[in-house]
Amino acid sequence: MLLLAAALWHGGDMRLAAIQTYPIKGCYRLDLDDARVEPWGLAGDRRWMVVDDEGVGVTQRQEPALVTVRPEPRPGGLLLRAAGRAALEVAEPVDGEPAEVRVFAHQPGVPARVADPAANDWLSQTLDRKVRLVWLGDPAARPIPDVHGVGPDDRVSFADGYPLLLANRASLDALNEWLAAAGSPEGPLPMTRFRPNLVVGGAAPWAEDDWLGRRLRIGPVVFRVAKPCGRCVVTTTDQETGVRGHEPLRTLARHRNRDRQLLFGQNLVPLLGPAGTGTTVRVGDPVDLLPD
């Protein structure tokens, strides 16, 4: 399997294999055939976030049940669904209550708007804890909080740190081979565990390690490969049920521990130029590593 992937890589036939967005940070994914690339990420990705009483984001790190919430984008808002609950339409709170929120407690505040009280009640009942739903009306308001591979004008939505996360399908195959060799009962794992935005097929396993600091063209869009992604407990959560296990962190700790970071995937920053928004990537697009 690894030799086949390597042969594909040397043949240069890399393609975009999957596109996913997460309308509400931490909640269920949306699988797409195409997506518009904006300076702060894919259109509609993590423009909403669940926050606690102090205005700090609630993620699957603390609340794996978030994945049971399945938001469906609608013009001007979302439809919220969860098993055993009546669906709820939520409008973008363009004139809603202003709030300063933080993606993580140690980060600066970002101006947002609070959703209708009905949405807050619906989510509080679903998660069995008091929460609010907020909307990032101006995604250009949040600078990328990291300092690696970014410029002062780079922006991000409510994602953890970077506009997009890219993963390599062959690297997942290699990880699952390690799980099988170790006799792990938890494998094979699906790519959804890693919650990427873009999945590349046709590359060699871990080829993405060598892309750091370089430019990657996917279809018509060029991205800067900014930083490897250090993985957390979210990857141990089944993205269909919210049930948490031990993998892949145990296996990543044995094979992919770099400076106390368990690496899988690469963070990307779009290089859109003066045209700004509106460029689209599609499943099947060619993926090319550009010359330095």
Characterization of this structure:
Strands 1, 2, 12, 13, 14, 15, 16, 17 and 19 form a 9-stranded mixed β-sheet that branches. Strands 5-11-10-9 form a 4-stranded antiparallel β-sheet, with helices on one face. Helices cover 14% and strands 31% of the residues. The chain has helices spanning 2-11, 117-127, 169-181, 249-255, and strands spanning 15-21, 30-32, 34-38, 41-42, 48-51, 70-74, 77-81, 88-91, 98-101, 110-114, 132-135, 164-168, 198-201, 215-218, 221-230, 257-258, 261-271, 279-282, 287-289.
Salient structural properties:
292 residues, alpha+beta, M1 Pyruvate Kinase, Domain 3, 9-stranded mixed beta sheet, 4-stranded antiparallel beta sheet, 4 helices, disordered N terminus
Topology:
Layout: H1 2-11, E1 15-21, E2 30-32, E3 34-38, E4 41-42, E5 48-51, E6 70-74, E7 77-81, E8 88-91, E9 98-101, E10 110-114, H2 117-127, E11 132-135, E12 164-168, H3 169-181, E13 198-201, E14 215-218, E15 221-230, H4 249-255, E16 257-258, E17 261-271, E18 279-282, E19 287-289
Parallel strand pairs: 12-13
Antiparallel strand pairs: 1-2, 1-13, 3-4, 3-18, 5-11, 6-7, 7-8, 9-10, 10-11, 12-17, 14-15, 14-19, 15-17, 16-17
